[in-house]
Amino acid sequence: MRRLFPVLLLWTACTTTGPAEPKDEFVATCATGFPGRGEWSLGTARLRADYCSALGRRGPTAIRIVRLTVKDTDPRLGPDAGRLVVLEGRELKERLRYRYNHLNACDSFALSLTGADYAATGPANAGCAPAEPPAPERTFADQNGATLAVVRYGGGAWRNLELPCGHWLFQCGD
Description:
Blueprint: H1 4-15, E1 34-42, E2 45-55, E3 61-72, E4 84-88, H2 89-95, E5 96-99, E6 108-113, E7 116-121, E8 147-153, E9 159-163
Antiparallel strand pairs: 1-2, 2-3, 3-4, 5-6, 6-7, 7-8, 8-9
């Protein structure tokens, strides 16, 4: 039992990209697990996820996103360009799909907002399962360490992006 504590402490430090402020109301929704926060950019969009993480069965870190904020300045959004969108509860569940995999390799998400769609898949560090469509598919043979993402506006053509995120999607800081 004495060995377990340092391992759990290290795991906690590695899976949360930024500790939640104690006064944030979302911390209360993480009755079990650890609250975390990650921010990243997809082209002109800036996303911030508040999430709960917990060690899953046989290695994956189970991720439950409890709040997602998006601010996209792309002019194709018209008057909505630069507007802050905050998703929580039912609306978050309707607009965001997130899939985590073994050891969090190839975690993927798909997000659909009015006028814009976003999707990404993390690197294949420990094998892959199918990505959440339309996020790019990855295989274990794919040794590109970047996160692969796609973005489109108004139902138009998808734009491919590569992000230097590291192992976890939520480590895509600029």
